[in-house]
Amino acid sequence: MANWGRISSRTIGNHIRKRTNQGFIGSTVDINPSSGSSSALNGGRSVSDQNRRYLNPLPWSRATLSWFQRFKSTVAAKQHDSFLSSDSDDDHLSLDFPGGKVSYTCDMNFISESSQARVPCYRVLDDDGELIKDCDFQQVSKEVAVKMYSKMVSLQIMDTIFYEAQRQGRISFYLTSAGEEAINIASAAALTEQDIILPQYREPGVLLWRGFTLQEFADQCFGNKADYGKGRQMPIHYGSKEHNFFTISSPIATQLPQAAGIAYSLKMDNKKACVVSYIGDGGTSEVSTLTISYFICLLQFAHGYPNCFLQGDFHAGLNFAAVMEAPVIFFCRNNGWAISTNVSEQFRSDGIVVKGRAYGIRSIRVDGNDALAVYTAVSAAREMAVNEQRPILIEALTYRVGHHSTSDDSTKYRQLDEIVYWKNARNPVNRFRNWVQSNGWWSEQEETQLRNSVRKQLLEAIQVAEKTEKPPLSDMFTDVYDYPPPNLEEQEKHLRETISRHPTDYSSDIPL
Fold this sequence. Notes:
The chain is α/β, with parallel strands linked by helices. It has helices spanning 11-20, 49-55, 62-69, 75-84, 142-167, 181-189, 204-209, 214-222, 255-268, 281-284, 286-301, 313-324, 353-358, 371-388, 416-424, 428-438, 444-467, 486-501; strands at residues 2-3, 28-32, 37-41, 94-97, 100-103, 196-198, 275-280, 328-334, 337-338, 341-342, 362-367, 392-397. The protein is 42% helix and 10% strand. A five-stranded parallel sheet has the order 6-7-8-12-11, sandwiched between helices. It has a three-stranded antiparallel sheet with strand order 1-2-3, with no helix packed on it. A hairpin with a 2-residue loop joins β4 and β5. Residues 482-512 are annotated as: Disordered.
């Protein structure tokens, strides 16, 4: 049984209402989807035969009912209807098209490719960590502020030590969040444990904030038996069901349409939670970015298949979320570089924030190196996403201080002076520390104790992770199928035979 509310902006509804003079759109219609029958109440009267001619031919189905139910009592839907409403004083200057009425003009004007001025960037703290006068922001308690700063420092130290471990050959790969600590921690602090995270790969601080231990980070990077992924993922591909943190995957932007779907499921279940999906600037333009980065390789090794990397998941994810009014926050870390591709070579628009409007998504640009600004923006975005059931796009302007990963040398495509400037003058950790310390909430002694403690814990965690037994070989073939298919059984058999013939070529610390 479904209640159909008035949706005055729908073109078909307007047409029927005007033709019948007492259309059904303005009344409540009870539908029995199984039989296709309908009954309507219009001021206590049943639907007339004239109206029933328009009611009966409509193809009742579960999809049809769901389409109308999506808009039931949501703020976003009411605003959408108001925007497309035909109840205007200028109806005689409007044309009716699918999707609503639009005014017409005899002047031929093309919409400009860009506005005269760039979209401003919201910030609270200046580069020295002092509050900007008359700035509106979400107040942060001493307890939260100190925890935020402590986690930013922990993330900074964790990145340094794991990076060094990779350079020593102790782990195979690593990727840092240097320069983006405020984005990680401040955004996580503004969310609740019930909110679901779909990360890209530069957000370990979100997991750190939620309680993922340094030992758990080390176990994943070393791929031992304690790793929740059983050693089958690359290092830094963390995941935690306990902390509502989906496992990181390498393909770019695939998490965006997934986030829209998960958010819609939260909406269907009436959950007071939202989904937050992180993405880099390269992920918003993965078609152009990947084309530039891999074009030569594709020509050499994949003749005739230049589109094998093209995905377009940014478009799919945002459009899906907007149409379905899903409570999801798309958080873009615009750090200037998609590996070696600068943002100037990725798109001609004013960054990412302007793209939200094209999809009908409320958007904001924020200083990603300002922890208070990020915290305030995400707090407001979450409130809108949950209470109004709508998607939000946040573009955080920042800078990737580190190399893209341990497989990259960024000095080959950018100046060292540029990196040093952002590392020192625009450092988000130092900036937030200045503000916390100016409030009397932090001291030099506490700073020393924190850094020594985190470093000691990490070194101990690495020692434990290195000594922990590796997952058994059989784990490579489990957890996908209930019963392994013949081809997997054949592969396992072939692998074991190969190992038995060449035992010295395989690691001896993996149980067979």
